[in-house]
Amino acid sequence: MDKFVIRGGNPLVGTIRVSGAKNSALPCMAAAILTEETVTLENIPSVRDIATERKLLAAMGAEVELGTGTSDHRTTICCRTLSDPVAKYEIVKTMRASSLVLGPLIARTGMARVAMPGGCAIGGRPIDLHIKGLEKMGATIAQEHGYLEARAERLRGAHLVFDKITVTGTEDLLMAAVLADGETVMENCAREPEVTDLAALLTAMGAKIEGAGTSTIHVQGVTSLHGAQYLINPDRIEAGTFLIAGAITGGDLTVTDCNPDHIRAVLSKLEETGAKIDIVGPDAVRVRSDGKHRAADISTEEYPGFPTDMQAQYMALATQSEGVSLIKENIFENRFMHVQELVRMGANIKVDGRTATVRGPAKLSAAAVMCSDLRASASLVLAALVADGESILDRVYHMDRGYERIEEKLRSAGAEIQRMGNVFPARDGEAAAD
Ligand code: EPZ
Does residue 61's CB lie within 6 angstroms of at least one atom of ligand 1? Predict the structure, then answer.
């Protein structure tokens, strides 16, 4: 199992480039199922979840490059033949986003056999809203032996209203709707940029979609889609993570190849704590800090609110901020796995239900800590960058799922961080799904 060794104390100075968004790439790769022609995606991040999705598609019969020896930032997928439209549990258990193949498989082949994702470190992660929407579009879905067995002659357009805002639920049903018979109206949709990214790819493939990025999406079903080439958006969560790294270390860091419009809530919160934020170009943000921060509360909300995927990283900063920061996690029921590890490093944090109370600044001392999920791991890296001494972070495969070569990127800005143990790529069956 790989570990990170991090010696704290260095301010981050310089420039870090953001990779493509994992959470855009995953639905866009699944969208290739919808056509017999080739779909080529650029600016794909070289992370484990992408390798997992390639394996998932290849196991169904798709032609897709495998492993990490490929040209890492591009993937070319052709689903002309889908000989085995099954998402097997062995793969799904390592990445719950595998459920994103459900809608496209039913839409393209009229059937799908997808392992139920099960829970993960941050919560139960049900997909009942995906199922409810597909059934309303005419699919019959049975659940047995841990699998969903779905069938539909041809999905028909429907008026769907999501009981809760769900990102992959919106994406799954959007992919189902583009080949359905008639019009689909989807209300209470997720507005995340990843949804807009997927809709842009589907439109390039010939789909007829209006309203992506708003709460109401209209889709006119078509009979077939063609191939396309598409450039994936930058990863807004990676950008936010590095900006907090610049703030917490009292550095002067420019994050490039990002989209400032996608991280407005994070930028304004960083300014509220006293960091100096400058937009230094259409795709670059500069953060400067003296390392002293004021406490500020956050409450995680769906986009464009403060993202749940940035909550753990913000908590690391809050441990260093003067005063009391209240952190409310409204999206997932168990997304405080990083708290105990931060407390072991000396943080003063109390959790009551979905609210964490963080008192700072607390002097953090280096420790051996355990990564538990993708974003909790990022929080521990940020804490280790300011802790006194050398921290050892175990199970960093969680990070490799969603951060491309994070140790190299941080080292290039002055961090003392080394990876120990085997080098990525992944070994099977290691990670719980996020
Ligand atoms: C996506 O997960 C992201 N993953 C998550 O990022 C992100 O944290 C989450 O959206 C929220 O922004 C990908 O895009 C691959 P949801 P998703 O459906 O779609 C409940 C990361 O760190 N819900 O928006 O699975 C659910 O339990 C990952 O990159 C249902 O009840 O999240 C949660 O409480 C972690 N029934 C809430 O809705 C459903 O059918 C929001 O979940 C679906 C969801």
Answer: no
